[in-house]
């Protein structure tokens, strides 16, 4: 059966394999990511958000179950074709180097360039487009080590955009940013998903913003992992189960958490 | 683009410097030969003064070629290691590759008493020394890599490199106490190192092997650029980390190993030259850095060699002393300037 989903998981169990055996972090995850949608992944610290993202981006193997990218098992992709279908933005700190912003964004064209990494006219068009959509033109010739965290986050998104993939996955892109920049990143991702028909999944702790801006949300708790539209999740009272603390209560009417 | 223009004028400048340094290297020495005569000898292969022809063609020209190969090879291996270890202070000498090569050579020259005579005779020649040096540096690099994968702190990796250096010299000391006077003499001559002691065949061999190492390095220019973003990003760009790492290890061991085998351990060139390129060109793009490092490496070794043959004097200074005197302050300055290196 042909599905609309770009990425789909089937009974996915995630975790790590160590010498002592398998450490399972979450089990039975079934999610579907569709084109044109901004999807946020929320859950408490240590619940396995990053592990899930690492598993579906093929950085670490799944313990059990399957991840399908465009109806094909993700493990069956060669590194190069995977890079043409999926781009990532991680929380990792970049190693020190002299790269300028435009050089950094140009690295996104790697999966398409020849063995010497020479950029063609087409590559330059993609790079220019990524720069103008994310509005980082004024930073182009600066070194990435000299720009602010909020600016760098936009640049990393531009890099993922230059990679020209239907699916972009980001790990906590709004952490360490002030409210202004958080909103800017949220709106940018929303625009990319809705207007450029990208499928964008990212994890975040900014639940209020996520409820307002995402098309769908994936909520991870110790007991379950559920995906739905924000309003439906509110209806079902899923957010009440997010934190195991009676002092944090979800206010359905306003769509946000309050502390009692 | 402005940057392209700036780069190409810099390259032109460096290339002219290289030609100058090459000619100066041929002209200067304890016998001074005027530049015009040097060019005449190079072009016509002959000159009315036979001693000059002999000095240039049989001694200084091959030595200049060896200097260029040494500078180029060590600097490129340093550049690769700095990106691969994400460590601005990495280099073939600092991480113990040169000591590993020394140990390999020591085992070939002095450890051959353990073997039957005919095997020993088979081993103790240019090829044996070459293979010993390659495997010596290869093994040390593998060990450093293994340790580096356990440690994230860049400074500890350097300390580990230092430990490997001490360890290998200790093993060499043990070996020397077992070896005969003749073997000891042979090994001591090797450790002193010199760019001028190679015969024609050795120069050919060095040229071929260094070319292979450089060709291998050229194939990983693109993945090295990707690695500037860290391993996870590089992988997400479709780069095979394993393949890049394997080629890097083989290429750097070939370069650092063979050069050490033929000219002895040369300090700091591999560490300082990539830095000079990065400072001058203000980029991390490996295509630019490769060419810059090639040119600067060749120029620096030619200049060091010219200094070491002490123009107009009757004595020479070991090349290793010159590179250390020039290179060590560069490293100290780098550490002071970049307090944030981690």
UniProtKB/TrEMBL annotation, chain A:
GO terms for cellular component: plasma membrane. It comes from the Bacteria. This is Iron complex transport system ATP-binding protein. Residues 7-247 form the ABC transporter domain. Its main location: membrane. InterPro entries: AAA+_ATPase (IPR003593), ABC_transporter-like_ATP-bd (IPR003439), P-loop_NTPase (IPR027417), Siderophore_ABC-ATPase (IPR051535). Keywords: ATP-binding, Cell membrane, Ion transport, Iron, Iron transport, Membrane, Nucleotide-binding, Transport. One of its GO terms (molecular function) is ATP binding. The keyword Transmembrane does not apply. GO terms for biological process: iron ion transport. Coiled coil: none annotated. It comes from Flavobacterium terrigena. It is found in: Cell membrane. CDD domains: ABC_Iron-Siderophores_B12_Hemin. It is a peripheral membrane protein.
TrEMBL record, chain B:
One of its GO terms (cellular component) is plasma membrane. CDD domains: TM_ABC_iron-siderophores_like. It is a multi-pass membrane protein. InterPro entries: ABC_BtuC-like, ABC_transptr_permease_BtuC. It comes from the Bacteria. Pfam families: FecCD (PF01032). GO terms for molecular function: transmembrane transporter activity. GO terms for biological process: siderophore-iron import into cell. The chain crosses the membrane at residues 61-81, 93-115, 127-148, 155-181, 201-221, 247-269, 289-308, 315-336. Belongs to the binding-protein-dependent transport system permease family. FecCD subfamily. Keywords: Cell membrane, Membrane, Transmembrane, Transmembrane helix, Transport. This is Iron complex transport system permease protein. It is found in: Cell membrane.
